[in-house]
Amino acid sequence: MDLKEQPSASTLAQKLGDTAHVSGLAIRLARVSGASERLAEWLLKVAIERGARHYERDFDPALPPDNPAVSDEEIGVALCLGQHRYALDQLRVAAQLLSSPRVDPERLCQLAIQERIEPVLLHIAAIAEKFAPDDEPWANRRRHLRPRRVPRADALPHWTRQVSHTGISSHGGPPHTDWLRRRE
Question: What is the distance between the alpha carbons of residues 28 and 7, in angstroms, rounded to a whole number?
Answer without folding.
Answer: 29
